[in-house]
Amino acid sequence: KVERRTLRIGDADVPPGLELCLRRQRAGTSAIIKAEWRFAYGEDGRPASLEDGTTAVRPRTDVTWRLYTISLGRCEGEADGRDKLDELRAKKDLGNNHFRHGNWRKAAQNYQEVLKDLHPEAYDDLRDEAVSVYVACANNLVFALMKLGEWLKAEQAVCDVLQVAPDDEKALYRAAKIALHLSKWAEADAAITRGRSLYPASPAFPRLETALKTQRAKYKERRKQMSRSMAGALFAVDGAVDEAPAAAAFPWVLVLG
């Protein structure tokens, strides 16, 4: 499988064996790299990606790469405008590659680095494009954090998306899912209601609405069961009678002097 990537050496966006070779490459040169598993995909390997057409790399597997370096550039000073946006888009694409291969932690790291440096309001004529990159990147970050089980971070991330794109379908859907997971029903209801209003043809929001109703009903039933259990325990305590033990039960003898 041929993969074309734009990356910055030193950002650890590719396995260490590949990056070590890149440091010695020149524009137009090629190389065959044989790497032990420690310098490739490590203990976990890499899942297959149907979208990328790649096969799975099993854990602790040595790999061989065939590398062709098209061009090299120097990072002299801070890029801006079109150059900066292209640089951030390339970083997002690297995150997408990790995302498609199920490497959620590395994908999240790439997306966070992009969002830290991407401020759409600073792009003037490129603002719409910058917003598009920001929203796509931030939505993928939310999903990666959900996969990692970092729900509170996902909640903050989806709020950041909705501040930039309050009507975005993916963001509203994931905001509702996160709120349901955190049992924040008012927030879930608000996201579902807005989603149904903006996207009436989508089947996703009605499903979430059903899930919300089910979750609320289960909570009410648990509360009823808890109330009945507590009431039964209280009645048992109130009905108990303290009885003095029989005299023969005491191991002492009264002596009159």
Rg from alpha-carbon coordinates: 30 Å
The percent range for helix content is 40-55%
Mean pLDDT across every amino acid position: 84
Q: Sketch the major β-sheet.
A: 2 strands, antiparallel
The number of E-state strands comes to 2
Task: Please report which band the strand proportion falls in: under 5%, 5-15%, 15-25%, 25-35%, 35-45% or over 45%.
Answer: under 5%
Structural class: mainly alpha
Strand order of the largest sheet: 1-2
Uncertain segments? none
Shape: globular
What is the H/E order?
HEEHHHHHHH
Compute the separation of the termini in Å: 107 Å
Count, helices:
8
Provide a descriptive summary of the structure in words.
- It is a single chain.
- By secondary structure, the chain is mostly helical.
- It is built from 8 helices and 2 strands; from the N terminus they run αββααααααα.
- It has a two-stranded antiparallel ribbon with strand order 1-2.
- Helix 5 runs antiparallel to helix 6 (169-181).
SSE layout:
Layout: H1 16-22, E1 30-35, E2 63-68, H2 81-100, H3 104-117, H4 127-147, H5 151-164, H6 169-181, H7 185-198, H8 204-238
Antiparallel strand pairs: 1-2
Helix pairs in contact: 2-3, 2-4, 3-4, 4-5, 4-6, 5-6, 6-7, 6-8, 7-8
Question: Would you kindly provide a brief summary of this structure?
Answer:
The chain is 54% helix and 5% strand. The chain has eight helices and two strands; from the N terminus they run αββααααααα. The protein has a two-stranded antiparallel sheet.
